[in-house]
Design goal:
Keywords: Coiled coil
Strand content: 5-15%
Biased composition (Low complexity): 713-729
Distance between the termini: 94 Å
Low-confidence stretches: 113-130, 485-501, 679-701, 713-793
Domain PP4R3 EVH1-like: 5-101
Helix content: 55-70%
Radius of gyration: 41 Å
Number of strands: 7
Family: Belongs to the SMEK family.
Structural class: alpha+beta
Largest sheet: 7 strands, antiparallel
Region (Disordered): 674-694, 713-793
Strand order of the largest sheet: 4-3-2-1-7-6-5
Shape: elongated
Number of helices: 39
Length: 793
Amino acid sequence: MSDTRRRVKVYTLNEDRQWDDRGTGHVSSTFVERLKGISLLVRAESDGSLLLESKISPNTAYQKQQDTLIVWSEADNYDLALSFQEKAGCDEIWEKICQVQGKDPALDITQDPIDESEEERFEEIPETSHLVELPTCELSRLEEIADLVTSVLSSPIRREKLALALMSEGYIKKLLGLFRVCEDLDNREGLHHLYEIVRGVLFLNKAALFEVMFSDECIMDVVGCLEYDPALVQPKRHREFLTKTAKFKEVIPITDSELRQKIHQTYRVQYIQDIILPTPSVFEENFMSTLNSFIFFNKVEIVSMLQEDEKFLTEVFAQLTDEATDDSKRRELVNFVKEFCAFSQTLQPQNRDAFFKTLANLGILPALEIVMGMDDLQVRAAATDIFSYLVEFSPSMVREFVMQEPQQTDDDVLLINVVIKQMICDSDPELGGAVQLMGLLRTLIDPENMLASTNKTEKTEFLSFFYKYCMHVLTAPLLANTAHDKNSKDLQEGSTKINPVCPDNFQTAQLLALILELLTFCVEHHTYHIKTYIMNKDLLRRVLVLMNSKHTFLALCALRFMRRIIGLKDEYYNRYIIKGNLFEPVINALLDNGTRYNLLNSAIIELFEFIRVEDIKSLIAHIVDNFYKALETIEYVQTFKGLKGRYEQEKDRLSQRLNRYRRDARSLDEDEELWFNDDDDDEDGEAVEKRMEDDFSDSYGKYMEAKKVAANGANGANNNNNGKAAVSPPSSPPVTPNNSSASSVKTVALPATPVVKTALVGLVDYPDDEDDEEEEEDEEEEQSPRKRPRLSS
């Protein structure tokens, strides 16, 4: 049983005048040889490590507060506190401290703190002036009392002496008795003096005085005194608010009278600090430190008492999830849990951990799953706040619960899907709730807070779960608002018109922007899962429909999504973009924007500049081959000329590589040199083709044969040079009529055949390079008219 009595929490006061929890352990008082004296030792209950080792100095001022707290200062600006689980343990240690210092345990303070400057003055004061003599507590002497209280605030020694005098003579209750008399007589002058007196007593910063002033017997009279500020023409009506307006609601009756009293006291003291007392000046902040501590320890005690009352919290969650509970009662229950969670934010991390673990064990998440799906907006808003506290505390705890839910046929009942649906259905025109929920979803799907040390499979398992059961719910509004874009593939004209299904409603546009922001986050952080989803759903094509939106912010969100994809420099994505001709809506948006110099213009140019700087070859070839005609007139930036330059450089490099292959082939066979020295073009072409078929890899040979058949089919029999037919550009004939049309890129809704050919763009350059070889052989006139339209017509 001694362990229970001696169980304590160790606190230190930080620079912000807030108490930091240093741990829980068991305190003892023993002689420490190294410190040469009786010392207080606290060893952690978890591992037995030493949390505190403090010698009981004869000159240190120890204070006993609220029957279970001992507070003292060991050095300048270093305050310590022991919070005991039981009053008996606190009394034992207090008696030991008083015994070492030779003090009476009946006192709540063992010493008067004296700094050096005060000590020097103290030595000069005659012995008879050690105690502050209080005037008789009479109406006629209220002004004298007020002057005395105000005058001592500048001196630490005199504050201590006055506090002792006020406690020893029961002076506070006598003053409050005079307040009632003055109020009955409407003695405004006396009431103003009492305001100054009570305010000064609060600034004495003594817990023992607070215990008296904030007791049930006295606190309303203290509030009454503080109503009569001399600076006000009419007194405030704080007591009327506390007794009539502010109602204490018990969603579940609290049977513990001590807990009820503590809740009332904490609310009223918080009201005094926040509402009644003026904001303290820089010089007065230290006067309120003990009041802050008083409120803090009260809150810790309230949370602890509620956590320990298992019947109370169990009943709260039972009624919260009971279908028979009426709406008004459920609203009060949810609001109680919300306030309870908000209350916990003042606690130290260890206390907060225990608090949320208790709620988790009681079933807070299943309860949220039910109430977040209700129609009552107030209930849903409060449930969202509770959910945010839980996600902020432990995303892993929420993820673990979600994955343990039974996989029912209807995915809508899953907690995350309930959250997504609430985000989608937010009725607020500004989507305030949706923005909050989107942030919570981002936290849940963020791999950065999925701790590999605790569960190595958490990331894989949760993301697989999310993409299987939840992603379709998240993307449903996006897919619904771009559903009819499939028909545009069949349109050769009009692709630049505003898409009729593109959301022009501002609230819908905002929602889609939020969804796109979350999807963009997924592209950056989820790699495999989101890549598979984009490919399977053709998601980027659907997103780029939004480039036609009249809301520029939504078009920018769609562009940002594509920019993140391209930023990964993943060839799987690049081939997907090329095959789907997905640069078309982006270039159309750039051309529709015209000469306006705005964010959309800059963002699109930055996209192409990134491709140029990073030298993404497949995309550069695709852009130049298909869109350069429309882009070459844009000269206020050098981006598109730079793309063309990169394209030409790559052509030259590939040409040199091909020439090197040829030189190697000729060196292997002297007879072949005779063929190449022959001026006959037909024989030259046949020799090249023969050598390539003999020495290149089988796959390359097969490719050239396929190219030869395709070129012969496109060109007909008008060319009897077999070597040239084998290396003619396969994509030129279909691209030429498309590019030469009047609508330029605006009508580049390409049919299936050219789309397939652009996927081979990495190899198309080989035939072009052979054309360069043939230019040296005076064949330029025949080939150049077909090559130029492909790049720039």
